[in-house]
Amino acid sequence: MTKQKQIATKANPKVKSHGGYRAGSGRPKGAKDAITIGGLLEQIYAQANGQDYEELLVQDFLKARHNNDGVTTLKYHNLILSKVMNSLAKIEVNDSADAVAAKQQAFADALAKLTGINPEAK
Fold this sequence. Notes:
By secondary structure, the chain is an all-alpha fold. The protein contains 4 helices and no strands.
């Protein structure tokens, strides 16, 4: 005969278990984060004699490069590129007139199927 493991519930809270429901546990509803991004940036600004966080990042990056610290420099490159690359990346698409016409026709056909309207009807 096998014994089934009992799980603590609101109805039977005395069953010992690892994990699961615990009365009164967890964050209270509506609790706010103790640390906010705005608060952190304000503290950095205050303790860095009025320098913005971006200025401090640039200074630290340049310091790592000046000290030939390749690992730290690479980390700064990754940080900067992950934040900046999306706004710098540009994709240029040059389609021929035939390709544009084919795309327009495919779009019109798909729209006609969705709406049930014949694209050639006027």
